[in-house]
Amino acid sequence: MPKRRATRVPAPPAPPATCPCGLPAAYGDCCGRFHRGEAAAPTAELLMRSRYAAFAVGDEAYLLRSWHPDTRPAELGLDAGMRWTGLEILATEAGTAFHAAGRVEFRARYTDGGRPGELRERSRFTRVDGAWVYVDGDVED
Description:
Elements: H1 31-35, H2 44-57, H3 60-65, E1 82-94, E2 101-112, E3 115-128, E4 131-140
Antiparallel strand pairs: 1-2, 2-3, 3-4
């Protein structure tokens, strides 16, 4: 009987030490807890930050879970060549524990194939069963 070669499964990338969302906290204590399902983002802004961090660390499952069921795509297919390099929150409207809906305007920086770029969006959020979810957004050209 021929010898079978052991298949090596690559280890998942180590989580970043600091959170990609821009807040001064460790990833595990900041957005990582939302990604792991240990807590829910208490505001629309924190959900926005956690979704940005999910793009940065490649957590497609969290992105889909935190998307409104009426607007959620079947899959995302994240681009492995895209690197998210910074998030700036420009404005927030409502979206606190006292609201049912909110908006967050942000600017996200990235590199794609080594070329820098920027995404500016005004995102809409609402609550589903008490949890904040991303509905959709208007992207600025």
